[in-house]
Design a protein that fits this description.
globular; six-stranded mixed β-sheet; alpha/beta; 147 residues; 33% helix
Length: 147
């Protein structure tokens, strides 16, 4: 029997310090879209995110559940998933590892895992100010929301 030494060097993400998802979720989530943001606090970013969802025929407050980690600590993904029952998850400026999610998600590339499609993107501030990141996000959102 042989062991892969690299396994023992893989970081283990502690989730005990992550909070529960209660009181950190906004929106009615009628379409099962969970959005986790690191910079949702400004009016500009709220409007920008609203426009992003409108572009894919969704409403920010009715069709999505938004978890704003800028106002509190990051909740554990398993807890957030139980609260939101999502089929689509978009992370803006938050890494999956920060939420205790142990899958590799490259930025601006869709990953399907356990009945959910994941998209990892830069922060809303970064995307709002960068045309290349906007186009990368738009390309992946079109694929994510294709009927």
């Amino acid at each position: 029997m042989s062991f892969r030494i690299a396994f023992f060097e893989t970081p283990i993400y502690q989730s005990a310090n992550l909070i529960t998802a209660d009181n950190h979720i906004f929106g009615l989530n009628k379409k099962g879209i969970t959005i986790v943001c690191s910079d949702f606090e400004t009016a500009e970013n709220k409007e920008f995110l609203s426009k992003i969802l409108l572009a894919v025929n969704s409403d920010l407050l009715h069709d999505a559940a938004i978890c704003d980690v800028s106002i509190s600590n990051t909740p554990h993904w398993a807890e957030l998933l139980r609260k939101t029952n999502c089929s689509k998850a978009i992370f803006f400026g938050v890494s999956p590892e920060e939420m205790g999610l142990h899958i590799k998600i490259p930025q601006y590339a869709l990953i399907k895992w356990q009945h959910c499609v994941y998209l990892l993107a830069g922060s809303l501030n970064e995307i709002r100010e960068d045309k290349i990141k906007k186009s990368q996000l738009w390309r992946e959102l079109q694929l994510m929301f294709a009927k």
